Structures are given as structure tokens and as C-alpha cells.
């Protein structure tokens, strides 16, 4: 049954489910003790909120639009996950300034995040679209449990029995940090709506000082269409026994609002009431109505 599948595929770590395929206790411990440097940048996401998009964007912003990393290094080594096995292997090869991504909640971030001047970008996406994206991701990724029907998966998602736990816990953990002006919040929807404007905001936050021409070039190369064609970003290097693009591509639709094609009105009521209740006071400051 589904519970067995969960035990088979995930490790339990500080109450969170973490895929065994890409993580082990060693990599997780490595992350808990990671030494952030002052000029590091880390993009934080709940899974399916725009992680690989940031893996495309950050190197381009930080190296003024040089396309080499995008064309030569797979996304997981270009901007590695803090908590995955790969980081320890390639840490020494990362260019300065280093860019990373993480799905960790705030309280699991290493002490060095607080003592360094590293910058944090929190990317948030409408949870209804996160659920839909995750539903398809579970169908294509062999290292995740079979999602069952959309209705079943909606319950699984709301119960937090998915990688990195409940969406509401993740979002809440990052909304009140002591990082001050070292953290910037951005939404997936904002990036979909006007990528150049989002890139200018990111560039300013990171102090990149880029011309409009470079911003335009970066926007072009980070479009959904271009990323889908980039073998270093579209996961075509991963054998289909692990990720089966014929079931659903990783770069699937890349739009805001696909939830409208999936939710019934009953599911919408159930989803919204749980999210609303769990977010409490935070609910009113969300950029979308749920
Ligand atoms: P969909 O499944 O809705 O298409 P993550 O990288 O956190 O796993 O998130 C994956 C989601 O981000 C997928 O959403 C994927 O298509 C979307 N995405 C990745 N790059 C994108 C881009 N350049 N433009 C729009 N969406 C993008």
C-alpha cells in the first residue's frame, strides 16, 4: 500500500520525508553543518515552486550573462542542492560567488547562515499549482511514491506525506526570519508574468548591476521554451528508469493557474479550508486568494 511505498522511498529526517535516492544521512548532516560564505546565494523553495528555474537564473545573474555554465554543467551540479549527496562531491569546483538551492525549512539551516552575510531568495508558488505540478512529478519520478488519483494525492499533500512535508509549514517557517535585508521574497507567478522585471529585482538584491541588454538576454535563456530544449536543464541526462519524461516531462507546462484544470469545487473547498486554517494570520498576506 501507499504507506509501505513511503517507507521504501523516503528517509525520515527531523519529521520530514526526504527521498533516499538523492539524500542520505551523511548528506543531510553535511547540510546541517555547511559553512556558508559571505558572498554565497541560496534560493529556497518548497518542491515544485521554481527550483530549477533558479538554477538557470542565478549563474547568469552572478556572471553577467555568460552562458557557459548553462551549456556545460547539469543543473544539479551548477547550482547544487544544499541537502543532496552531490554537494559534498562538487563543493570545491563551485565558482565564486557560489549559488545553491535548498528545500530545507528555516530551522534546519546551518548556523553559518546566520553568522555569514549569505543572501537568501525565497521563491513561493500558489500551492494549488504546486500540488498539480507535484502530482505529475510523482508520476514520472521513480524515487517518489505513486500518487494514486488526484483526489488521493490532494489528501496526501495536505497531510504533508510528501517530500519536505507540509507546504504551510515550509512557508510559515521562512516568513519570519532574523535575516533582515539578507532575504528576498519572490513568487513564481511574478516570474511568469514579467521575467525581465523579476530579474531586475533579483539583480538589484544581489548587487549584480546588469544592463537592460544583459537582463533581456538572461530572460530569453531562462524562458520555459529554452530550458525545455537545454539538455543541461531538462533532466534528459537522467535515465528514464529514474525519471520517465514519457509519463510527464519535468518541464511540464510552466504556467500559473493550471490548478483550474484539475480541482473540482469540492476539492477546492477542502484544500482552501485546510491551508487557510494552518496559515492562520499569514493567510491574509498571501499574494493569491485560495
Ligand atoms: P509545472 O509542473 O507546473 O510545469 P521545481 O523546479 O521546483 O521542481 O519546479 C518545477 C516547476 O517549475 C514545473 O512546473 C516547471 O515546469 C516549472 N518551471 C521550470 N522552469 C520554468 C520556466 N522557465 N518558466 C516557467 N516555469 C518553469
UniProtKB/TrEMBL annotation:
Keyword Manganese assigned: no
Sequence intervals crossing the membrane: none
Name of the protein in its database record: Sulfotransferase
SUPFAM superfamilies: P-loop containing nucleoside triphosphate hydrolases
Keyword Protease: no
Classification via InterPro entries: P-loop_NTPase, Sulfotransferase_dom
EC number: 2.8.2.-
Location, primary (coarse class): cytoplasm
Lineage: Eukaryota, Metazoa, Chordata, Craniata, Vertebrata
Organism: Tetraodon nigroviridis (Spotted green pufferfish)
A GO BP entry: xenobiotic metabolic process
UniProt keyword annotations, A-Z: Catecholamine metabolism, Cytoplasm, Transferase
A GO cellular component annotation in the UniProt record: cytoplasm
GO MF, one example: sulfotransferase activity
Domain of life assignment: Eukaryota
Similarity field: Belongs to the sulfotransferase 1 family.
Subcellular location, record wording: Cytoplasm
Location of the Sulfotransferase domain: 38-280
Amino acid at each position: 500500500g501507499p504507506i509501505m511505498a513511503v517507507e521504501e522511498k523516503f528517509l525520515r529526517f527531523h519529521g520530514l520525508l526526504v527521498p533516499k535516492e538523492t539524500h542520505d544521512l551523511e548528506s543531510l548532516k553535511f547540510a546541517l553543518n555547511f559553512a556558508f560564505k559571505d558572498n554565497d546565494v541560496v534560493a529556497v523553495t518548497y518542491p515544485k515552486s521554481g527550483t530549477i528555474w533558479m538554477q538557470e537564473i542565478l549563474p547568469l545573474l552572478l556572471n553577467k550573462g555568460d552562458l557557459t555554465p548553462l551549456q556545460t554543467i547539469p543543473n544539479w551540479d551548477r547550482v547544487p542542492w544544499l541537502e543532496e549527496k552531490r554537494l559534498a562531491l562538487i563543493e570545491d569546483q563551485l565558482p565564486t560567488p557560489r549559488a545553491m538551492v535548498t528545500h530545507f525549512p528555516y530551522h534546519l539551516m546551518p548556523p553559518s547562515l546566520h553568522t555569514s552575510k549569505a543572501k537568501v531568495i525565497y521563491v513561493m508558488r500558489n500551492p494549488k499549482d504546486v500540488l498539480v505540478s507535484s502530482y505529475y512529478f510523482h508520476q514520472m519520478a521513480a524515487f517518489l511514491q505513486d500518487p494514486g488519483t488526484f483526489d488521493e494525492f490532494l489528501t496526501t499533500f495536505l497531510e504533508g506525506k510528501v517530500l519536505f512535508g507540509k507546504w504551510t509549514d515550509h512557508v510559515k517557517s521562512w516568513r519570519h526570519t532574523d535575516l533582515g535585508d539578507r532575504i528576498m521574497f519572490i513568487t513564481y507567478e511574478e516570474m511568469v508574468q514579467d521575467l525581465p522585471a523579476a530579474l531586475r529585482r533579483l539583480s538589484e538584491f544581489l548587487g549584480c548591476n546588469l544592463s537592460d541588454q544583459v537582463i533581456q538576454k538572461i530572460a530569453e535563456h531562462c524562458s520555459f521554451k529554452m530550458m525545455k530544449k537545454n539538455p543541461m536543464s531538462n533532466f534528459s541526462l537522467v535515465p528514464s528508469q529514474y525519471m520517465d519524461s514519457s509519463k510527464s516531462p519535468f518541464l511540464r507546462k510552466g504556467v500559473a493557474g493550471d490548478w483550474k484544470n484539475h480541482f473540482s469545487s469540492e476539492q477546492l473547498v477542502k484544500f482552501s479550508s485546510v491551508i487557510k486554517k494552518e496559515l492562520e494570520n499569514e493567510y491574509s498576506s498571501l499574494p493569491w486568494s485560495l
